Amino acid sequence: MTKISALMRATAVAAVIGAAGFYSTVPSISAETTVEVGGAPMYPSKNIIENAVNSKDHTTLVAAVKAAGLVETLSGAGPFTVFAPTNDAFAKLPAGTVDTLLKPENKDQFTKILTCHVVAADAMSDAIKKMVADDGGAHKVKTVGGCEFTVKADGDKITIEDEMGNTANVTIADVKQSNGVIHVIDAVLLPKA
Q1: Taking a C-beta distance cutoff of 8 angstroms, is the pair 190, 149 a contact?
Q2: What are the distances in angstroms from CA 165 to CA 81, 152, 161, 193?
Q3: SS3 78
Q4: How confident is the model at residue 142 (pLDDT cuts 50, 70, 90)?
Q5: Beta carbons within 10 angstroms of residue 29's beta carbon
Q6: Helices within 39-153 (DSSP H only)
Q7: Which of 87, 91, 99 is nearest to 39 (CA)?
Q8: Which end of the chain is more exposed for a tag (fewer CB within 10 A), N or C?
Q9: How far is it, in rounded angstroms, from Cα 11 to Cα 33?
Q10: Would you state the torsion angle of the CA atoms of residues 120, 142, 72, 99, taken in this order, to the nearest 10 degrees?
């Protein structure tokens, strides 16, 4: 073996060892602590949109976010707290409501409804419960859409009352995202008519 080929082999081995060392220090997505939502793991290193598109329980919400032009916003830096209604939550609305709201001429109305599910903060359930306790059992929340909802907590149970008097329950709390947190809810929150 010539000195050049021996040097090349040594360099290649050093490069492989160096690369292996580098990759072993990069965190693996599979090593992240995830919460399963809609049959899919939600990765804290991914943003709200990157995770939501994988949840089979949130296909209506994802379609609505796309129709309202909110994908870029909810992929942004945030932080955001999103109260994410499931497909079943949207199905509880009167028949035809979602189809009507998805029409281009109703984009502004649907955008308002969707942004009334978003708070410009990173509020985990413990922080929400503390705010409720500090306010004597009910905490008013202002949303990105300009709505004001009332959050209540009873033990581990968190509920949100919308401006129409409807109540949504948080069914899965603290789904950490790179740009905030998702709390899955069982009803669509509606602004005042």
Answers
A1: no
A2: 21, 13, 6, 12
A3: coil
A4: very high
A5: 11
A6: 48-52, 59-67, 71-75, 87-91, 97-101, 107-115, 125-134
A7: 87
A8: C
A9: 37
A10: 150
